[in-house]
Amino acid sequence: MKKSVILGAATVAGLAASAAVAGTVDDVKARGTLNCGVTTGLVGFAAPDANGEWQGFDVSLCRAVAAAVLGDASAVEFVPTTGKTRFTALASGEIDMLARNTTWTFSRDVDLKFEFIGVNYYDGQGFMVPKALGVSSAKELDGATVCIQTGTTTELNLADFFRANNISYEPVPIETNAEAQQQYLAGACDVYTTDASGLAATRATFENPDEHVLLPEIISKEPLGPLVRHGDHEWGDVVRWTLNALVSAEELGVTSANIDELSAGTDNPEVNRLLGTEGTLGEMLGLDANWAANAIKAGGNYGEVFAKNIGEETPIGLARGLNAQWTDGGLLYSPPFR
Ligand SMILES: N[C@@H](CCC(=O)N[C@@H](CS)C(=O)NCC(=O)O)C(=O)O
C-alpha cells in the first residue's frame, strides 16, 4: 500500500493520527529498501561524500537497520529533511524512520505521536561565536543577533535562556545548517546556537576553525535519537533493538574485526544470543538469526561508528563524554540480550 498522503493544510499532529500505523517491517521487506530520514547535511552526522554516498553517525544507524531487516546495508533511500519538514515526513509515511539529531521531548513523543526508540547521542545546546567578538560567556550576549534553525528545540531553549538571564537577542531564522553556516560566516549573525555536536561538526568544516570558539554554557538537555511513528510496535522493536545491538556489541567486545570469528560461536552466551548462534531472538523480531550480526557488520559497533564519524581522531573531535558506556562512566546502557 502506498502511504504517501496529500499534505494539504493538515497539521503534523493531524497527519500523525491519519497515517498508517502498522506494518512497516513488512513494507520495508516488500519494498526492499529502507526510507530513512536524515538531515539536509551535517558533516559527521549525515552528509553525502565526494561520490554522493551518504556518510555519518546517523547514516550508520539507517544502514544498520537496513542490514538487520534486509541483509543489505546499502538498501537505504536517504531522505533529506529540515528541522521543519522532518516530522511531516515521518507522520505521512514518506520515511520509515527518522535518524536526524532529533531531541526526544515530551511533546514530540506524546502530542506529535512519535516513538523515540532510544538515544544515540546525549547532547546539549551550545553557542559558537567568532573569537574576534571577544565574548567568553553566553551571558555577555545581550543584544546579539543569533542564527537559529526554525522548528527546533534550539529556538525554544534560546528564548528561555535569554529571558531567564534578562537579556535580549535578535533572531536570524534559518532553515538548514548550510544556510546557518553561510549567514554566520558572512556576519549576518553574531552567534550560532544549536546542539553542541552540531556546532563542532559545523566548525570543523570552516576554513579557519580556530577563529571561532564554543562558549562554556550548555543550556539544555538534548537527548538525540531515532524515532518512528506511534503504534507500530513491531517496527519500533526492530529499530530499538538494532541500536541496542550496536551498543551491546561495544560493551561485549564484538567489533567489525572479530565478528566473523565470534559468529562461529563463543563461550559467552550473551554474545551467542546477540550473534544468533544461540536462542531465537531474531525470530522473535521476525528477522533472520544473524540480523544483529549484519547490523554490526554494516559499520561496526557503537564505539566504532562514533570513532569513525565524529570521534576525537576526526576533524569534528568529539570526546565520548556522556556517550561512553555505563561501564566507563557514561550513559550508554543497553538492556540485556536474553
Ligand atoms: N536537536 C534539535 C536541533 C536539531 C537540528 O535541526 N539541528 C540542526 C543544526 S546542527 C541540523 O541538524 N541541521 C541539519 C540540516 O540543516 O539539515 C531538535 O531536535 O530540534
TrEMBL record:
Domain Solute-binding protein family 3/N-terminal, first and last residues per copy: 33-262
Signal peptide positions (record): 1-22
Record-linked SUPFAM superfamilies: Periplasmic binding protein-like II (SSF53850)
Protein name: Amino acid ABC transporter substrate-binding protein
Tree of life domain: Bacteria
SMART domains: PBPb
Keyword S-adenosyl-L-methionine: no
Pfam families per the UniProt record, alphabetical: SBP_bac_3 (PF00497)
InterPro entries: Bact_solute-bind_prot3, Solute-binding_3/MltF_N
Keywords (A to Z) from UniProt: Signal, Transport
Gene3D superfamilies linked: Periplasmic binding protein-like II
Assigned protein family: Belongs to the bacterial solute-binding protein 3 family.
Keyword Nucleotide-binding: no
